[in-house]
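Supplementary notes for students who missed Thursday's class. We covered one full example, reproduced here. Read the sequence, then the structure, then the short commentary at the end.
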Amino acid sequence: MVVGSVLVTGGTGYIGSFTALALLEADYKVVIVDNLYNSSEECVNRIELISGKRPVYYRCDITDEPALDKVFDEHQDIDSVIHFAALKAVGESGEIPVEYYRVNVYGTICLLRSMSRHNVTNIVFSSSATVYGDATRFPDMIPIPEHCPLGPTNPYGNTKMTVELLITDHVAAQRNNAKKTGKSGEEWNGALLRYFNPAGSHPSGVMGEDPQGVPYNLLPLLAQVAVGKREKLLVFGDDYNSKDGTAIRDYIHILDLAQGHLLALNYLREHHPGVRAWNLGTGKGSTVFEMIKAFSHAVGRDLPYEIAPRRAGDVLNLTANPARANEELGWKAKHTLEEACEDLWRWTKNNPQGYRQQPPQEFVEKLKVGKK
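Structure (token representation):
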């Protein structure tokens, strides 16, 4: 029984595709829009391979309002959106900030306008822990709670914070407008999911992260070193105030993160909270050197790295306090850092070309056996 119909923007990307999979497995109908800027349509096939269900897919840019209108016109049962479509590299955002605002902020404006025209009232937004900036500037804010004051330190974080404000103002206005006509307006809701560092792949080995070009995140870079695509990892800064001098991050398994989106959507539909922010993280920070060690252990050999200067906009510690999501959503990270490293290595080792190759036949056969 279909429980609802959801539009997933950026649904062929890493987190979007895993969330689309989680939604299908929870009996939602899923419609994906993505322009394939940093992803592959092949992952739609992998979603179907794992779940036995195929999401509807449109090649569509988030800044193309008429194209979004067409999708909503053709799927009038959509009542919610999970919004991933965005540019997402901290370093790159400092080089081309205007493009980041065009895609991330203007793209969201196009989406919200189209949603309003089609009376689509719930939005789950893929935000980021970067909205907090350097939380060590305040006492007792590590691990970071949702009430930590926002203060991004780079253009990417600024766009995420701007979109959070945009959604907050949009939902408040729609609720107020409804009240003027004698209605409650409680159907208008937004979830702001601030997550930390997604990691890992599907345990089956047929679905994972497949960045086009240079990845900007630590684990995909380490994976490229492990398969010989990259000579070594660059560690940006070893002079932070941490136990080994490298920056501290909270790594969360992609399956746990996808589950968080599903539970946030269910919460909006059942509880009508207005706009609510939730951190999705493990609550446990790991340094860059600890991550290199953990992934090297999964690979079975030490991976080479070199110390480089700090990057502008990087901060010492981004570790989540996930208590609010634990309590309100009933969500908790279940997978370990070791599992994330093992799953990522299984995917990388067996799919060196990512989605530009067929998945290993033995993995496909195991999936078929599991469905019987």
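Commentary. The mean pLDDT is 96. Residues 4-371 form a domain with the Rossmann fold fold (CATH 3.40.50.720). If anything here is unclear, bring it to office hours.
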